[in-house]
Structures are given as structure tokens and as C-alpha cells.
TrEMBL record:
Belongs to the ROK (NagC/XylR) family. Residues 61-91, 241-296 are annotated as: Disordered. PANTHER family: N-ACETYLMANNOSAMINE KINASE, ROK (REPRESSOR, ORF, KINASE) FAMILY. This is ROK family protein. It comes from the Bacteria. It comes from Brevibacterium sediminis. Residues 61-86, 260-295 have a biased composition (Low complexity). InterPro entries: ATPase_NBD, ROK. It holds the Pfam family ROK. Gene3D superfamilies: 3.30.420.40.
Amino acid sequence: MTLPATVAVDVGGTKIRAGSVIDGELAHVRSVPTPAADGAQAVLNTIAEVAAAVIAETSGSRGAGSASRGAVTGSHGVGSTSSAAESGGGGGSDSDFVWRIGIGAAGVIDPVTGTVVSATESLPGWAGTDVVSELSARTDLPVRVVNDVHAHALGEAAAGASSGTRSSLLVAAGTGIGGGFITDGHLLTGRNSAAGHIGHVPSAAAAGLACPCGGTGHVEAIASGPAILETYRRLARVSGEPDLVQSERAAQGQPHESASETSSESPNSTPAPTALFGSPFSASSPATATSSNLAPVPTNTRELAAAASAGDELALRAFDIGARALGSALGGIVNVLSPELVVIGGGLADMDETWWAPLREAFAAELIPAASGTPLVKAELGQDAALIGAAGLWEDAPGQKKETH
């Protein structure tokens, strides 16, 4: 007897995670750095190598009799398995596996063709890569691939916060903001496989701010982790907090300036429009008051979160601005899609009520009466959601037309 077994892989710009999924159970998870700077071929080789390692470890844990397809190391980490694939199942042991690979990967992914439609510079040369063909050639195993946030949505719907619902919206809020919409148990990918780009919904709070996509005024430009940190820096400049600005300059290796120079915006800096902060800011505005002896000045979102928890009012204000912008955008999306549940994952979801309270408030305020009461909850599976979702690609292939009866 042979068992279907999946090597589930999550490919990000900094790390690749992989594990085996058999009978719905995730095991033998390992993580390796993504060789992003070395290009797409190096990334594909690493995926193949880590897949081989997962297969070998899984087979070893089942005993010597569980010789599985795909566990022989070759020039790219996985050797030829064609003879096993053709025979239909290894050496006849009742624990033999029929292996396949499911991948959630960064970038806009066409799940039908298995190609990367577009990608950011976090994975140089990734755009245009035929992931399915390339990895099938390296492993001699069938491969399916989808966007990594889409995989997260599938994972949470299969075994996490949205399990048991017919429709759900997964929002990944962290370095960027992405999403995945599940309806009637199926992933919505859209005509160009780009469905779910929640971070690029227009936001009044982000008016005039540059978005990583090259546009301006998108919610990611005000509500992502890096954007919230940048809001904090703008608030510090506008509030005229010399100690904060000088500490920031020192951390960045910039020259020391006088208090009078730091209290005003330079001609090339981004101004703080009324729309961005909700009200004009000045040094005397209560919302800008902060403890100027905080050191060091936060240099990343995690440090900023710690500053907010410690009562830094500028940090609290920055998170409030970002959370409300995202909550408002999500409310508008729910008015259009009407999911049963909205699930929030990503690094920002680990924040306390500093972020969650304004997010919920702005979300609820935006909902039309018919959508009122739509739950907004935290994701449950963490990083494993993408692996579980990637394995689920073999239960339901996204982008494929479903037969109706």
C-alpha cells in the first residue's frame, strides 16, 4: 500500500521552510537561508535540496522498509526517481510514499502554469521562473505552486482560524500587506493571479506617500511595519524632538545638527500633511509629547513596538495611524466581498492592543450594516499555515475551473 505524501515548501526572500505532510500531519520541518542574491537557479537548487532532506528524514523515521521516491541525492540535491514513479510505489512496503511537492512562494504566481508572473527585488531574477517545470526536472516529482500569502490563506482555512467557514479573508500584515480570499472552499486568484494585493488599495491616510510597488497613496505605504516606523520618524521631526532626531542621525551615521535644524523639515523630506495624521502637528500638540530621553531610538518595528508598550506616545501614535488605515481599508474590502471571517496574520498580528484596538475600531466603523459584526481574529498557525496550505494544493488546485453538476 502506498500513501500520498507531500513535501510542503514556503519560499521567502530570507528563508525557505519545508516539511512533510502525510494524512494532514505536518512533520520534519526544517529551515534554510534563501540564496536570493545568487539568483533564481540557486533558489530552485536549494528548494530541491531541502525537499530531498525532508523526504530522507521522513522515510528514515518510518524505518528502513519505507524507501521512498525522491530521497536519492543527485547533482542538485535530488536524484532521479523515474523508475519508482513509473512503477507506482517503491519496494512494496505498506509504508511506501507517493511523493509530490506543494509550494507557497513570494511573488505573483500563476498556479495553472506554475510560473512567477512578477516579483520584487527581494528575490532577484525570480520573475519569469517556471517553478513547476524547473523543480519537476530537478526532483522527478510532480509540483504545484501558489503565492505564499495565498498558501497562508489555504492553511488557515484548512486547519486554523478560518477552519469550518465557507468564505474567509486572510490578511498578512508585516513587512508588506497581502491577502488571500477563500470562497466556497476555493482560493480566488483572479485573472492575472494577482488577487489579494490588499496593500495596494488606495488609502487617504497614505496620500502622497510612496509605495514599494512604485505607486503612491496605497495602504501599505502607511500601514506596513516599515511604514509605521517611518511614520514615527516623521512624527519625531514634526514634533521638534531634537534628542530623538539626533539619536536617529547618530544611528544612521549622519552628521550632528542643531535643535533648530532638526525641528523643521528639509526641502527634500516628506511633509506631514493634515490627512496623514488626522490633525496638524506642532511641538505643543498633546499627541506629540514623548519622553526625549528614550535611547536608543527604535530602528525597526520590533523596537518600536517595545517603545509603544513602554508608553512612548509618538510610537503609540504611529501604530494608531497605521492600524486605523489598515482597519478602514479592510472594512471597505469586507463591504465588497462579505466573507464570514477576517483573519490577521503576519508580524504585526503579534502586537498587543496598541495595534489591535485601533484596527478593530476603524474596521467596525467602515462596515455597512449588512456586514456589521464580521469577526476580525488573529491567525492561529503562524509560519506553518503556508506549509499546510501548500500541501493542500494537492487537494484543490487553485485557478482550475471546477466542474458543476
